[in-house]
Amino acid sequence: MTNKNQDLIDQRLQDFNDDGVDRRGFLKCMAWAGTGLLWTLSGGIPSSRAFAKSHGHEAGKGGDFSFVQISDSHIGFNKPANPDVTATLQTAINKISAMPHKPDFIIHTGDLSQLSKPSEFDTLDQALKGAVAKQIYFVPGEHDMLTDNGQEYLQRYGKGTKGSGWYSFDHKGVHFVGLVNVANLKAGGMGSLGHEQLEWLEADLKGRPASTPIVLFAHIPLWTIYPDWGWGTDDSEQALSYVKRFGSVTVLNGHIHQIMQKIEGKVSFHTAMSTAFPQPAPGTAPSAGPMKVPADQLQRVLGITDVNYLVSGSSLAIVDSPLGDSSSSASGSGLVVVDSLFG
Amino acid sequence: MTTKKVWVVGLATTVMIAMLLLAGTPSVTANDQPSGASADVKIDNFSFGPQTLTVSVGTTVVWTNRDDIPHTVVSTDGVFKSKVRDTDEKFSYTFTKAGTYPYFCSVHPKMTGKVVVQ
């Protein structure tokens, strides 16, 4: 890379929201954290924060809470990329239980199963029974809707939801919206929310104060990461137009089995690792199929996402942790993120 | 000797022309008489190969999923629709009418293909 380009990037990294935060330092901090892509939203503006310091003593203040995102468990998958996805899901659940603070709930962002089979959902349910958080919110992935238009999924996880499984709920002042972008997909397209769901979303958000922190979660990314592999949602811009007036919007997705993040105005986008198998970075393989890594490295590319909401700064901190040893190669994921943000 | 050889070549040419003509005719006659032929489409790396397959009327097309991820084969116009096909599972459909049949994977809709039936 030329010096000129590097300068340009540095310029963009530094103070690009004029919030006094050194972006370069922030990104270094991510690399330092090793496993941890860490970012905090202060009034919708991202700033850096030393997770290790801020955690602990701030947790437990009135109204503060955390939740955990897990994704892409693919129960039933048994190919070489991970012959035992139930075991790695169990590792993820154990990791959640071992966290110093108990999350209020868990969000699963889809692809619970590999083939939408009742036995696969049974196995998932059995494993999740051992989770420290009893409340679990789901949205389906395309693998959960493979038979009968997703009836098996909807009967188990979609009670009280609308359409193909979308819904919203409030938790300690934060408004959460679970969206479904894996149903009724059209030839040649990417993910799709559809007219009915968009109308519902617009109505759901209407009348809420702009100061309400919003968390949108869905399986396929609600931002276009790589159209050639269908890593995006055709009508997500319409959905995002409804949240533009809010001061803090966090979008959590799965599907691509790797960490990616982007900050656009007051909207922060983030994708989680899978608990089952990794997928290649965009365009680095002939297809998006499961990526095989040496067995002893598998747990470094699988993981969970811990989201902390701190009332004091009305901020959300998102920390990704691999299942395996935290001093490992996950900083590599950080570099991927840097590339996707500024490359 | 020379005359006979020319005659043989002439006969062979005639036979070949007849065969070519016959090969061209099924589109006229085979609508109610399937040819029994079959053709393969392989699913590899989230794509159908060949992406455009041209067959004669009556041909049975067999799709085989060779990916580690399940796919489907769904006609865009609602003509045929497979169940979900996991690794090495097949789906077949016999085309009895001439036409162009676009299809896609309803799980990964970027995957599209076409069968042209003549």
CATH fold description of chain A: Purple Acid Phosphatase, chain A, domain 2
What is the chains' assembly state? heterodimer
Give the domain tally of chain B: 1
The dominant shape of chain A is: globular
CATH class of chain A: Alpha Beta
What is the structural class of chain A? alpha/beta
The strands making up the biggest β-sheet of chain B line up spatially as: 2-1-4-6
| End-to-end CA span of chain B | 44 Å
CATH topology of chain B: Immunoglobulin-like
| CATH architecture assignment name of chain A | 4-Layer Sandwich
The rounded Rg of chain B comes to 19 Å
Query: What would the average pLDDT of chain B be, to the nearest integer?
Result: 82
Average pLDDT rating of chain A: 80
- The CATH H-level superfamily of chain A is Metallo-dependent phosphatases
Instruction: Please mark out the parts of chain A with pLDDT under 50 across 5 or more consecutive residues, or reply none.
Output: 1-61, 326-343
Helix content of chain B: 10-25%
What are the main properties of this structure?
heterodimer; A: 343 residues; alpha/beta; Purple Acid Phosphatase, chain A, domain 2; 7-stranded mixed β-sheet; 6-stranded mixed β-sheet; 20% strand; B: alpha/beta; 4-stranded mixed β-sheet; 2 helices; 8 strands; 23% helix
